[in-house]
């Protein structure tokens, strides 16, 4: 297993390097130049050239790339033009709310999806089964922003149970209760799509396993349903589920961007939108790199977890 | 086929259609961080034989002995690791795709699984016409005509042109597989377990079809099988393979009546006795498992399971040599201590092949029309 | 070869050409008809297909169906639904119903267009990687890994903002970003099919690579691609509406269900003017739901092995 992990990381290095190239090229395709932010329509061509020189923009793209990569290796992601602080510091501030939101959503999603999936797998083609499958279709089909708006309308505007947005009451004392109240709606929005997807995986995977010969053998031995489900079926059904967890991260991040925008949740997603609007490219590059690293690590962990759950998987 | 033909086929003055010399096919085993090669699976390990025009060479052995790998190397579905495959005077073991394409119309294959070897998306007519069209042998209209002819030849009829493979039975599909191999008018056909996937009753029909086609078109076969029955029925000579090597190569009657290699003897013993009165006889059981072809035993690869193994067998690799220097018709064996006694089983009484032809076209009407 | 059959050597010589009875060879239904029959059994898939067809008709005949121009600005803005405007007007004074109908054009164009782009890219790369293997495979798969390492939506956001939001641009961007799963899918299929005997037969018959690829391998990978593409249309519609909602997609005055929802970010609209945001939201939901059901039905109908 250790050689496998080392190999994966070695393969990952060129991949991550490619990510930096793609990232840098895309950002440099942008029509607007960061120099524009410092300039006014009345600036003379001389001043423009000065500014470009100061920012290193007059150098060829590969020189700038090498310079940027050099800084990157030292953990320097550059400077946010909009917020006037280093990108690393900015990301540090914003990453925790996003991780909180995503973590809470995952926990809620699995807490809902796994029991429901197992439940309906054992009651195939009943009303409960059709209900859950139907709901899951609704869940994967509804866009985050529409669901978010509906939730705000119902639970914040009409019922007044939860706040409409932000991570805590502005100017308020904060505190755990206040923060949890703010967390509930965005978590539900984000968890909906994940659990809708998940419940179908759990269900079909459980159905496959329950139909397998070794389950029938267990039944023939006279084992009870609970014993069969928990001891024999669940572990085998979990294997495909693990892959879904890994795949989810990229989707989760996409969902988080929209959700954070709707709820004005001050995390990485909202920062992305702000950086796009403000043409704050060093921030965008930083976000992309962190996210790519996150996806890479998540995929690696998934593959390792796969082997832990399923002893048949050989690392080679 | 007559006994005279066997003598002809084995006579040294005839020029072989196919000559395989020291053929090896090794698959690397990769492991570790940078997937370095830690060893090789020696699927085929130094196999040599010749096939003469018009004969059928059977290759028999347990699964995993390398017989199919050998067949696939000969028609170049795999590129051999070393050795040469001389077909009609040309060494094709290293030939590039372009020159191979020319050879391939003369060197065809019939596959084991008739369910897997036909593209499910194409109708039978298109499957059969395709070789002609791909090789620009004739126009589409002529191809259509040829397809109808060949369908009759293999005992189907032209109704089948518009059918899809999944609408056919296993036996019918295998007939289509054989028909496809015939489209390019090959000289040699490698039959890789062509009847193993079929019901026993259908096996006989397909074997008879192959025999009839051989007579009609002067075909040469390499017939690969793990079943002794089919091999015995169709082969003029038989090569017995074990762990990538040929143990014994001799005319069919010799193999069955006077096996020279202990492994051949064991294979014959494992072959079920159809006559219950003869069942109560002394019987040898093969002990132990087949060793891994990644790590074959030293010396004679069979020594770990051979009841007659001696010290020499552990050390020295036996070469495939004439059984009887005075009588080249007896074949060759790779054994330090070849057996010299009649088979414990009575294979002696020859049963004549049923008179007349096993008319292939007669089948068509019967077979699920 | 006379003397080899032992007495009672059952099966081989003994059985003359008997009838192969394993399967009646009656004129079986065609593969297509079987797929249609299986699909029709799936009730929600049929409903989904009907809705999807209606949406397409709506998009094509939008000028005939819409009561007025989607761009015309009426003096009465923020008007509640009533006799003049069935679904009211938006905050600029445009007819909501007409915009809703016209917006279906945007969603379907992006949905279908983006999927076409990415299926073509993904299938080509997947075929190349799977068939040629070795370094071609290595390069294609590493590029695929790179694209898959990026959080998909974030990269699309950045790209669209860089090249500028427009219908064509978002179609292209979604198309150029979404191919990796298809490439992987096709590659996997090709790897399996390449080992099949019917491809081996093609090689041994001396067929050239293009014939083997396009006539023998590609048609046999189509089922999962079709299913993937169907779900892909739904995904692209969600993506487009999300981008437009964020102001990075189709921009007003052009109408898109997503950009119509943008107005609901104002709490007044959200709380008191439901007609501006609930209808476009429902339209997205209905369209995506319908297509997802179609995809589900296709999967059931296509992926059962044809026997």
Automatic annotation (TrEMBL), chain A:
The protein's name: Oligopeptide transport system permease protein AppB
Sorted UniProt keywords: Cell membrane, Membrane, Transmembrane, Transmembrane helix, Transport
Family of this protein: Belongs to the binding-protein-dependent transport system permease family.
GO CC aspect terms: plasma membrane
Compartments where located: Cell membrane
Domain ABC transmembrane type-1 residue range list: 95-302
Membrane topology reported for the UniProt record: Multi-pass membrane protein
Residues annotated as transmembrane: 9-30, 99-120, 132-156, 183-202, 237-263, 283-309
GO biological process, one term: transmembrane transport
Matches recorded under InterPro entries: BPD_transp_1_N, MetI-like, MetI-like_sf
Lineage of the species this protein comes from: Bacteria, Bacillati, Actinomycetota, Actinomycetes, Propionibacteriales
SUPFAM superfamilies in the cross-refs: MetI-like
Domain of life: Bacteria
UniProt key word Signal: no
Main location: membrane
Pfam families according to UniProt: BPD_transp_1 (PF00528), BPD_transp_1_N (PF19300)
Gene3D superfamilies to which the protein is assigned, alphabetical: MetI-like
Automatic annotation (TrEMBL), chain B:
Highest taxon, organism lineage: Bacteria
Protein name according to UniProt: ABC transporter ATP-binding protein
Residue ranges constituting the ABC transporter domain according to the UniProt record: 29-268
Keywords: ATP-binding, Nucleotide-binding, Transport
InterPro entries reported for this sequence: AAA+_ATPase, ABC_transp_ATP-bind, ABC_transporter-like_ATP-bd, ABC_transporter-like_CS, Oligopep_ABC_C, P-loop_NTPase
Species whose genome carries this gene: Microlunatus endophyticus
Molecular-function GO terms, alphabetical: ATP binding; ATP hydrolysis activity
CDD domains: ABC_NikE_OppD_transporters
PROSITE patterns, per database record: ABC_TRANSPORTER_1, ABC_TRANSPORTER_2
Any one biological process term the GO annotation gives: peptide transport
Span list, region Disordered: 341-369
Keyword hit for Transcription: no
Family: Belongs to the ABC transporter superfamily.
Bias (Polar residues): 360-369
TrEMBL record, chain C:
Keyword set, alphabetical order: Cell membrane, Membrane, Transmembrane, Transmembrane helix, Transport
Membrane topology (UniProt): Multi-pass membrane protein
A GO BP annotation: transmembrane transport
ABC transmembrane type-1 domain sequence ranges: 104-295
Chain segments carrying region Disordered: 1-25
Subcellular location, principal: membrane
Gene3D superfamilies recorded: MetI-like
Compartments, as annotated in UniProt: Cell membrane
DNA damage keyword on record: no
Pfam families xref list: BPD_transp_1, OppC_N
GO cellular component, as recorded: plasma membrane
Transmembrane segments: 44-66, 106-131, 152-179, 274-295
Family (UniProt): Belongs to the binding-protein-dependent transport system permease family.
Protein name per UniProt: Peptide ABC transporter permease
Organism lineage string: Bacteria, Bacillati, Actinomycetota, Actinomycetes, Propionibacteriales
């Amino acid at each position: 297993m250790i050689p496998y992990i080392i190999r994966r990381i070695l393969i990952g290095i060129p991949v991550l390097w490619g990510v930096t190239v793609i990232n840098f090229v895309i950002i440099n395709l942008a029509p607007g130049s960061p120099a524009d932010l410092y300039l006014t329509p009345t600036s003379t061509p001389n001043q423009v050239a000065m500014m470009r020189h100061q920012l290193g923009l007059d150098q060829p793209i590969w020189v700038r790339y090498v310079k940027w990569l050099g800084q990157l290796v030292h953990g320097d992601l550059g400077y946010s033009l909009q917020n006037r602080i280093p990108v690393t510091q900015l990301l540090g501030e914003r990453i925790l709310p996003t991780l909180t939101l995503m973590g809470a959503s995952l926990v809620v999603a699995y807490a809902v999806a796994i029991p429901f999936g197992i439940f309906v797998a054992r009651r195939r083609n009943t009303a409960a089964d059709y209900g859950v499958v139907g709901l899951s279709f609704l869940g994967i089909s509804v866009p985050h922003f529409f669901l978010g708006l509906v939730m705000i309308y119902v639970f914040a505007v009409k019922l007044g149970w939860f706040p409409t947005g932000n991570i805590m009451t502005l100017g308020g004392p904060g505190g755990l209760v206040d923060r949890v109240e703010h967390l509930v709606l965005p978590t539900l929005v984000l968890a909906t799509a994940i659990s809708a997807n998940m419940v179908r995986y759990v269900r079909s995977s459980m159905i496959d396993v329950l139909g397998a010969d070794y389950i029938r053998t267990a039944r023939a031995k006279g084992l009870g349903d609970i014993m069969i489900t928990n001891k024999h079926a669940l572990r085998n059904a979990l294997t495909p589920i693990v892959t879904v967890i890994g795949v989810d991260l990229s989707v989760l991040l996409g969902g988080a961007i929209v959700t954070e925008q709707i709820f004005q949740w001050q995390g990485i997603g909202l920062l992305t939108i702000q950086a796009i609007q403000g043409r704050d490219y060093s921030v965008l590059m930083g976000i992309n790199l962190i996210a790519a690293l996150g996806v890479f690590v998540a995929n690696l962990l998934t593959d390792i977890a796969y082997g832990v759950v399923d002893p048949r998987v050989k690392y080679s | 086929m007559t006994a005279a033909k066997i003598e002809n086929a084995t006579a040294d003055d005839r020029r072989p259609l196919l000559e395989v010399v020291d053929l090896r096919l090794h698959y690397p085993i990769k492991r570790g961080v940078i997937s370095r090669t830690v060893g090789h699976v020696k699927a085929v390990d130094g196999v040599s034989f010749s096939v003469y025009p018009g004969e059928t060479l059977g290759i028999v052995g347990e699964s995993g002995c390398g017989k199919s790998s050998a067949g696939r190397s000969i028609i170049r579905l795999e590129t051999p690791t070393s050795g040469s495959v001389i077909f009609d005077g040309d060494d094709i073991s290293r030939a590039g795709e372009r020159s191979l394409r020319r050879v391939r119309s003369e060197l065809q294959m019939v596959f084991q699984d008739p369910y897997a070897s036909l593209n499910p998306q194409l109708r039978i007519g298109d499957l059969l016409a395709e070789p002609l069209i791909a090789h620009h042998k004739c126009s589409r209209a002529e191809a259509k005509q040829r397809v109808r002819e060949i369908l009759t030849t293999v005992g189907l009829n032209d109704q089948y042109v518009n059918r899809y493979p999944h609408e056919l039975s296993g036996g019918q599909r295998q007939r289509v597989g054989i028909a496809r191999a015939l489209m390019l008018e090959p000289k040699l056909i490698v039959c890789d377990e062509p009847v193993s996937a079929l019901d026993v009753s259908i096996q006989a029909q397909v074997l008879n079809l192959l025999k009839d086609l051989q007579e009609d078109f002067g075909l040469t076969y390499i017939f690969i099988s793990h079943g002794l029955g089919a091999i015995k029925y169709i082969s003029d000579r038989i090569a017995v393979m074990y762990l990538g090597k040929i143990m014994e190569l001799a005319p069919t009657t010799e193999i069955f009546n006077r096996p020279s290699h202990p492994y051949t003897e064991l294979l014959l013993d494992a072959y079920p006795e159809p006559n219950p009165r003869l069942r109560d006889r002394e019987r040898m059981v093969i002990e132990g498992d087949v060793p891994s072809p990644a790590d074959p035993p030293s010396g004679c690869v069979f020594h770990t399971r051979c009841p007659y193994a001696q010290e020499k067998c552990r050390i020295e690799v036996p070469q495939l040599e004439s059984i009887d220097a005075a009588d080249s018709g007896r074949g060759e064996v790779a054994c330090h201590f070849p057996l010299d006694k009649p088979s414990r089983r009575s294979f002696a009484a020859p049963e004549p092949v049923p008179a007349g032809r096993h008319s292939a076209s007669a089948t068509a009407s019967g077979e699920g029309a | 070869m006379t003397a080899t059959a032992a007495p009672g050597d059952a099966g081989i010589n003994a059985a003359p050409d008997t009838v192969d009875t394993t399967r009646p060879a009656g004129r079986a239904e065609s593969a297509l008809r079987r797929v249609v029959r299986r699909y029709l059994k799936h009730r929600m898939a049929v409903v989904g297909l009907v809705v999807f067809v209606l949406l397409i008709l709506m998009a094509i005949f939008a000028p005939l169906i819409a009561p007025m121009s989607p761009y015309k600005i009426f003096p009465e803005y923020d008007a509640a639904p009533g006799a003049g405007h069935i679904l009211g007007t938006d905050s600029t004074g445009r007819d909501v119903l007409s915009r809703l109908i016209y917006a279906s054009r945007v969603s379907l164009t992006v949905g279908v267009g983006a999927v076409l782009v990415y299926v073509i890219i993904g299938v080509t790369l997947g075929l190349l990687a799977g068939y040629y293997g070795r370094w071609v495979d290595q390069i294609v798969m590493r590029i695929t890994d790179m694209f898959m390492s990026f959080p998909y939506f974030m990269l699309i956001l950045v790209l669209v903002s860089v090249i500028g939001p427009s219908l064509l641009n978002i179609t292209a961007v979604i198309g150029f970003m979404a191919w990796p799963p298809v490439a992987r899918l096709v590659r996997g299929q090709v790897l399996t099919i390449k080992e099949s005997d019917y491809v081996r037969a093609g090689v041994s018959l001396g067929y050239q690579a293009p014939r083997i690829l396009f006539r023998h391998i590609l048609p046999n990978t189509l089922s999962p691609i079709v299913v993937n593409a169907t779900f892909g249309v739904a995904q692209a519609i969600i993506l487009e509406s999300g981008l437009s909602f964020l102001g990075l997609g189709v921009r007003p005055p052009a109408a898109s269900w997503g950009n119509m929802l943008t107005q609901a970010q104002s709490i007044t609209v959200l709380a008191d003017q439901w007609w501006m945001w609930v209808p476009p939201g429902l339209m997205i939901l209905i369209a995506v739901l319908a297509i997802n059901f179609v995809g589900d039905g296709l999967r059931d109908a296509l992926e059962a092995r044809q026997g």
